[in-house]
Amino acid sequence: MLYVKTEIRPSSIHGIGHYAAEDIAKGTLVSKYEQGFDIFITKERYQALPKPAQEFFDHYGYWSCELNGYVCSADNHRFTNHSLTPTVGTIGAKEGDDGDDIALRDIKSGEEITVDYRVFGENPEV
Asked: pLDDT averaged over consecutive 10-residue blocks of the chain (126 residues)?
């Protein structure tokens, strides 16, 4: 669930991007997994889904070791693109808690919000 105002629009990084719609100060909580708002499914449920639904989770979601399942943000956060120099990072992740996504530096309104996909165990092309 997002805690800041954002918008989506075309990205020079990839397809659609996730952008700050207000200035966000370094250290601000940007997003946090919220049960009942964001989408969570178990590995078994994922494997039982039809291929197009699995592809949706593969593209817009991620595997959470902390929650032991797949998570997909129900809001604009699912459009967050990868960067080796991300604007947002996760702190406080532990078993049963996916942690908080916070601004790693000041983010100006209109700037694309990014994360480093490698923290999810992915190896994105860079």
From this structure: 97 95 98 92 95 92 86 93 93 78 97 85 53
